[in-house]
UniProtKB/TrEMBL annotation:
Gene3D superfamilies: 2.60.40.2580, 2.60.40.3690
Species annotation: Bacteroides reticulotermitis JCM 10512
Leader peptide range in chain numbering: 1-22
Annotated spans, Disordered: 429-451
Protein known as: Minor fimbrium subunit Mfa1 C-terminal domain-containing protein
Domain Minor fimbrium subunit Mfa1 C-terminal stretches: 381-471
Length: 476
């Protein structure tokens, strides 16, 4: 769904040495079967899409539009692939290629990275692609070449483009077909400049009067995706159908043996380490992320729609362990200078370790030196004055909501422009706040606790862009 390229079938004007016009006007006989011809033209128009949001579209950068090859799938109306073709391409025009006569449904895999398709075995509706590395996903899938496939915007759409091939479709008059395609990747870009921190200053009694946003990292990049986009009423593990049609991703199996970290790249365990004693009690919470990883550069991720959960009166949430988003690294400042390490205990800020040790709860107590061990005792340690804010992405596309409400997920072929407009309160002292345990199954707490919308301390404006542009204003 979202931005569309056009694969436009056109008349293939091919200069074929040794072939007369009379020969070209006859249908082709291949192994006793009469066949016709099909040809695709890949146009340069990349600034349209099927479901345009309020923000419009974005042409992106040249690398995101480069086409190096096309795999063409011929299927029946149920999606069963009957033949696979790899026509050569010069510029934007493929050579004409032979297909059997009759009505077919045509699919295009642009820049196919090697997805296995077997004629008379593969149903394109069921193909799930496994991503083998984080680099493949975050470079746009795959290795800087953007896989694109037929756009599909509802469960009532077949996805394949119908075409009736007859003996009149010769090498000089191939059948015309137009295919709209989406990139399967989603793009994340940050446009934050200077967030408003008036509420943050007030909530900290002017202890924090300014911030620098250092950058962000991706959180929960799905290791699998449907090659052809799916829509429906499936809400995965709970089995109950939803009331509205939504994006359907690859189900995350809730099981005591399947951990959240097994299904995602850049899960929280890559940024925060939980150390437990023999009884499973957390004794240390350590920040293991590198400051250099937090950048403002554009990043890509795979499509993901976690299970939709509800609270209150049909308010929507999802699980922290399975929802895609970003984590911002923010430097706390006062009077223009960076704050040094500070502490929070029982919602009280302590500007130094000496001030913390003077608290009555620690009278006669020798506190550990290590920051991770202090956190294990319920003390937040903001090392070098650094805070972390997590934003889980809700897709704001007005054409695809849950009864008029946005739901958590990143959709293919969308640009999510994130803009932190204001910060209301202190962030976490470690990425994710130590609330998700990646060593636990994703069936609920602590492996996959619900996102608590009441603790959103930043305000983000999201705009989607073709690319579908989403600007998301974030308020923390």
């Amino acid at each position: 769904m979202k931005i569309k390229y056009f694969l436009v079938a056109a008349l293939a004007i091919l200069g074929l040495a040794g072939c007369s016009d009379a020969q070209n006007d006859f249908p082709e006989v291949d192994s006793g079967e009469v066949k016709g011809y099909l040809s695709l033209r890949l146009t340069g128009d990349v600034n349209t899409r099927t479901s345009e949001g309020s923000e419009g579209t974005d042409g992106g950068i040249p690398a995101e539009s480069t086409i190096t090859g096309v795999t063409v799938l011929i299927a029946n109306n149920a999606g069963l692939v009957t033949s696979v073709h790899h026509p050569s391409i010069t510029g934007v025009q493929t050579e004409a290629f032979k297909v059997s006569l009759g009505t077919h449904y045509v699919y295009a895999l642009v820049n196919n990275p090697g997805i296995s398709i077997v004629a008379d075995v593969t149903n394109i509706n069921d193909v799930v692609e496994a991503v083998t590395s984080a680099a493949e996903a975050t470079s746009g899938y795959k290795n800087g070449k953007f896989l694109m496939v037929n756009a599909r915007n509802s469960s009532t759409e077949l996805g394949g483009v119908p075409v009736n091939i007859t003996s009149n479709h010769t090498i000089t008059t191939p059948a015309p077909v137009t295919i709209k395609v989406d990139r399967v990747a989603a793009k994340i870009t940050d446009i934050t400049t200077t967030p408003t921190v008036t509420s943050l200053a007030n909530s900290t009694a002017n202890f924090v009067t300014g911030v620098d946003v250092d950058g962000y990292v991706l959180l929960n990049v799905r290791k699998e995706f449907n090659v052809l986009q799916k829509w429906g009423y499936n809400n995965y593990s709970n089995g109950a159908p939803l009331n509205y049609e939504v994006l359907v991703g690859v189900p995350f199996e809730s099981s005591p043996t399947i951990l959240v970290k097994d299904k995602f790249f850049h899960h929280i365990g890559e940024y925060t380490q939980l150390v437990k004693d023999g009884g499973g009690v957390i004794t240390e919470i350590n920040n293991i992320s590198s400051s250099a990883a937090y950048t403002a550069t554009d990043k890509y991720m795979t499509e993901n729609r976690p299970e939709i959960k509800f609270y209150g009166t049909d308010e929507i949430t999802a699980g922290r362990g399975v929802t895609s988003g970003v984590i911002y690294r923010v430097q706390a400042k006062n009077g223009g200078g960076d704050l040094p390490t500070f502490y929070v205990y029982k919602e009280e800020i302590f500007a130094s370790r000496t001030a913390l040790e003077a608290h009555e709860d620690f009278d006669g107590v020798t506190l550990p030196t290590a920051a991770g061990e202090l956190r294990g005792k319920g003390i937040k340690v903001y090392e070098n004055g650094v805070m972390y804010y997590t934003y889980f992405i809700k897709d704001p596309n007005v054409a695809h909501t849950y009864g008029g409400k946005d739901y958590y997920g990143v959709f293919r072929n969308s640009i999510y422009k994130l803009n932190i407009t204001s910060i209301k309160d202190l962030g976490d002292d470690v990425p994710g706040g130590g609330t998700v345990d990646p060593e636990e199954p994703g069936t609920g707490e602590p492996g996959n606790p619900d996102i608590d919308t009441e603790e959103a301390y930043i305000q983000v404006t999201v705009t989607i862009n073709p690319w579908v542009l989403n600007t998301i204003n974030i308020e923390f």
